[in-house]
Amino acid sequence: MKNKVRAEFRPDSVDLVNFIISHFRALLITGIAVAVISAAVSLLLKPLYESAVILYPSSTIEETPSLLGEIAPGATMFGDDDATEKLLQILNSGQVMEYLKTKYDLPVHYEIKATEKYPNTVIAQKMKKYIRSSKTAFGSVEIKVRDRDSEIACAMANDNAVHADSILNNMQRGASTGMLSELARSYENQMRLIEKYEDSLS
To answer: β-pairing, 49-55 with 131-135?
Structure first.
């Protein structure tokens, strides 16, 4: 009775070729399956386009002492850092988010189903994911918008910047008006004091 000797697989070129030939059909089917699955996944995963806008908020209001030598009480001052932080707050505010949500009909654009239990929460999460604002190392503010549509990403980033900047400018103008009113009141008080002293000397 002859003993059967089991040949061991050796990773040399001859055995590798023989292995491929003997398992060619299985390898071919596996390769085709992987290619089909990869193609299907790539079709399902739509690419996201990113648009970025850089804003350099500048202060239109400088610290101006009142006629009494003190900063006018209640007046809001905007320095460079303050303006940057204020702009970031505006960009992340509900007012700006609601503006973008309404203008671009984001519930429909993001395909939020009306049957969602908390649709507003889902929309807010989507906006937080795809619309971001951050302070750069140079004191500017960068707005980034990602979307499947490159034109919408660009338009949304620009509208976001314009609307937020408009709100900031209105706030600064309001603060400037308040400061001028305070200076006018201080001037009138000083004039009354001068008249009082003149009357006491006469």
So the answer is: unpaired
151 lies in some domain: yes
pTM: 0.58
Counted domains in the chain = 2
Q: What are phi and psi of 65, to 5 degrees?
A: -70, 150
User: Do residues 83 and 33 share a domain?
Assistant: no
Range of the domain at 89: 49-201
Tell me the C-alpha distance between 159 and 166, whole Å: 10
CB 183 within 8 Å of CB 66: yes
Backbone angles phi, psi at 76, to 5 degrees: -90, 125
User: Cα separations (Å) of 145 from 29, 76, 80, 134?
Assistant: 42, 31, 25, 12
CA distance to 32, 43, 73, 98, 116, per residue, from 121 (Å): 42, 28, 40, 13, 10
Q: pLDDT tens, 1-40?
A: 455 545 554 555 556 666 667 777 777 777 787 777 776 6
Sign, Cα dihedral of 181, 185, 191, 194: negative
Structure tokens belonging to residue 31: 């390769």
